Amino acid sequence: MLLRLLLSASLALAALPATGMEIIGHLDTPGAPLPNRLYLKMTGDIVAGDAEKLSEGLKHYDSVALRELVIYLDSPGGSLVEGLKIARILQSRPEIVKTRVGETDTAASCASACVILFAAGDLRDLADTGRIGVHQFYSSKADLSGADGISLGQSLSSDLIGFLESQGVSSALFKEMAYTPAETMSWVDSPQLEAWGLVTGDVIDQSMEYVNINGELWLKLEHRSLYGDNMIALSCNQRHEVVGVANLDQPPKVVAGDFYVVIDGVPVIPAASRATSNEKHRTKVTFKLEAYQARLLAGAGSFGARVMDSIGDGFWGFQYSVEDKKLREMINGCGGGNFVQPGLRTEPGIDLYGADLYRNGIRNVTLQTCVQACKDDRRCVGVSYVEAKKWCWPKSSARGRRQAPGITSVIKP
Description:
It is built from 10 helices and 24 strands.
């Protein structure tokens, strides 16, 4: 395996006494366009002095432009106080920090205080060969009084909860620790760790929100991962076509080639696309989707963009995991089976509350039928349409407005 080969030719990070954790590193500098990475393997018990050992060792790489710090952990735990110190060092690093337990063909465990080191990563991965265990922390100081023990426990609990929250980890992890006796170990499965936010995969953060750009409503998707910071914004033009702008993190020393949108993992060439700029390692492209692509996108579980390099043997881009209804709302409000006539203003995710013309609305109709009903009634100024229930609510006023996922409003000019 690559990592095993890398570590066999590595250098010890520090010349301090080899007590506590063994910290071994390897600097990988493949050359542009690939980024520089520092690989660390941290094994053994966590003891006082390990944080200083790590800090001193990392200073050897201060002159190197690193993009990623990849840390492989295999430790039964040890000092929680020292573990928090190490975690703070990792948390403060400017690089993308990726922590991992387990390799393809090598088993590893991260238990007790080691879990805090694992949580320090921006990206956190648990291999099939890895396992993560938690239990109560405790003090081995026999001379610690009851009052001092309570004070110390409260202080450490506060620090630990605060750190986990700052890393986006649910407090449910701390509860699991608190309810597992110190003399036992709770080995938590990967799905539960993912649900608690401890295991993340390669995605740091993603968001989807409506934004107003020059008076027009756009749906903005932002995605931050190991592969960079990327964005796509989508809107509906006057022809009721889905159009978009992609702003992608581009590797250095490469030339952009063909542009693709990626729908449920399948790259497709849009109806039209044009690179608008290529500055500061960013690729900016405007594009328009085919009608069938828009229909596919409305029900997609993932969506993204991809740019091939000019010689066609590599690409950059991202794929967004769709977890809410905003994308479908925007597409359906734009065209397809719920086509809305020109001249009307469509606002996905907005409810015109109150001012209902009919006590029970109009049930089991399409958005197009809903809008037509409004056009046929001179009292009607707009409608709010509940997509999941196909429920139409014609309105006598459009003054009451609030955000409401799953509802599309259409307003007369």
